[in-house]
Design brief:
This protein has strands at about 5, 10, 20-25, 35-40, 45-50, 60, 70-75, 80-85, 90-100, 105, 105-110, 110-115, 120. By secondary structure, the chain is mostly beta strands. The N and C termini lie far apart (about 40 Å).
Length: about 120
Amino acid sequence: QLQLVESGGGLVQPGGSLRLSCAASGFTSDYYAIGWFRQAPGKEREGVSCSSRGDGSTYYADSVKGRFTISRDNAKNTVYLQMNSLKPEDTAVYYCARMDRCMDLTGWGRARNWGQGTQVTVSS
């Protein structure tokens, strides 16, 4: 059964760090692009970062460039999102997704499957 399970969320002070994990099962994650998205209360879900299959290309939303880093551990079938210098506006539920490709002509690629999400709260 295909499954994506996020973990690592929590409460952190502004300027702090968290590392989110997305553990995949039921498929080989390095055959697919894996993306991170987030949704804040009252806002639409937005793309945050994506790791392409094959060539190792990575993509980031402008709002997180230089602060977030996406990485893969194919042996563990897991994708990580290292989040540094966190800001209150990063507060959201973070989801990972299996995608055919990170980007398409209109922006972030289409997600095929979603995890259940993990809450990230940045507050003093």
